[in-house]
Write a structure and sequence with these properties.
three-stranded antiparallel β-sheet; single chain; Beta-Lactamase; Arc Repressor Mutant, subunit A; six-stranded antiparallel β-sheet
Length: 250
Amino acid sequence: MEERGGKQTVRAVERALDILMCFAGEKDLSLTEIAARIELNKSTVHRLLATLEERGFILRNNDKFRLGYSIWELAANLTELDDPAQLLLPEMERLREQLGETVSLYVRDGNNRIRIQAVQSKQAIRRVATVGARLPLYVGASSKVLLAFAESAEREAAVQESTWPDSIDRDSYLHQLEEVRQMGYALSIEEREPGAAAVSVPIFDRNHKLTAALSVSGPVSRMSVETMREYAPQLMEAAQRMQTMMRAMT
């Protein structure tokens, strides 16, 4: 047992879950790759993989590992009420048809954001968004939304983390977040990925607590600042409909 954040945790369980999370955005990984990602020796990782494989959470194909069928059995029991990524998918598809660009849904996990749903643009040149991708919280329109509409103490704590890059001035970033709160949306142009731009808005629950960030992204050749500002009200309308859907299900 270990004490973390006032809670007791089981280290072996944590390590097994760390292994499973390695496959967020990855299909196959080798023993060496997994061990490097979770910073454990290969013998320990091998024992954990063997247990996960026995219980069906991991499949082995020669020297590669992938998620097993037990993961999908658990996922199949998620209802739309449990899983906003499925509940909100039709509205995301509607927004994609409306704007013609890739639509993504993000949630915050510590100092990261995770893309839990995406609807790809149908255009030949488009931004491809991978579901399950874990991205840093200090760049990107959705990151700004997830921090700007969080509690003030959370915003301050996030920018004071040791992982925060020295190249991003904390005071300037906090000022940006205040502007995002006032506007109701955030923009980013080539902050994380060259040639890509995005606009993002918040989604709140019935208690006006931030639930997720809804984003539209595409190439900078189509998504200028002016275009994204024109898109912002349409994203807000979509977010409002999503909020209504979620509140109706709770």
